[in-house]
Specification:
Strand content: under 5%
Radius of gyration: 19 Å
Number of domains: 1
Structural class: mainly alpha
Number of helices: 8
Distance between the termini: 32 Å
Largest sheet: none
Shape: elongated
Order of helices and strands: HHHHHHHH
Oligomer: single chain
Length: 212
């Protein structure tokens, strides 16, 4: 029979890593040491206050990223960053939403997509949105997603939005060298904005990882 801590660890394999302390401390509901606007919203309005917090944080962070994309005329804002922003402001203390997992997650997703494209001979090929879905593109996308999932599991750096990023790249939507650099710059900008906005609004979000 497993002891209580082992049981908690097993549960955490299928849920948020914050289950290890017997409550969802990674979520907005139980953020220890909250202050400012976050504490006010939670104390006065409960779940509705947390909804306002997620709305406000996401609005500011994504607007900042979008402004950078507009100013530099680069694809610094792309679909999977929406999911990353949601994690930053819905489960800001969770490992899956930490800057570490976001940077490693999206970075490995890009690398995995490059491998998939190369293996199936799609370097410089038109995207699936231009040429349609062909067997080689299916193989490239499938391999990219598989590599991303396996690598992030080995590194214990789960970040679900990375699965979308690797499809974006391996499908050819953003696969030119300059675009790949822009993708990672976009991730860095949103991650920095998420950290700064959380700290400004009252959540002591980790600068890198909840584990230190």
């Amino acid at each position: 029979m497993l002891d209580p801590q082992q049981e908690i660890d097993q549960i955490a394999e299928f849920a948020d890593s914050s289950v290890r302390v017997m409550q969802r401390t990674g979520s907005l509901v139980g953020v220890p040491g909250s202050y400012g606007l976050k504490r006010y919203l939670q104390t006065r309005h409960g779940n509705r206050g947390n909804a306002v917090y997620t709305f406000t944080g996401s609005l500011i962070a994504v607007a900042l990223s979008g402004t950078a994309a507009w100013a530099f005329d680069e694809p610094l804002l792309f679909p999977s960053l929406g999911a990353t922003a949601f994690l930053f402001f819905e489960t800001p203390m969770a490992e899956v939403a930490s800057p570490r997992n976001a940077i490693i997650g999206h970075g490995l997703a890009v690398l995995a997509a490059i491998v998939g494209i190369a293996v199936f001979g799609l370097i410089d090929a038109p995207s699936a949105y231009e040429a349609g879905v062909v067997p080689a593109r299916i193989g490239a996308v499938a391999l990219a997603v598989a590599l991303t999932g396996g690598a992030l599991r080995l590194l214990r750096a789960a970040h679900p939005p990375a699965g979308a990023t690797t499809i974006i790249v391996s499908s050819g939507l953003l696969d030119r060298p300059s675009q790949l650099v822009a993708v990672m710059v976009g991730v860095a900008i949103l991650t920095a904005a998420g950290f700064a906005v959380n700290r400004a609004l009252g959540v002591p979000a980790p600068a890198w990882s909840p584990r230190g």
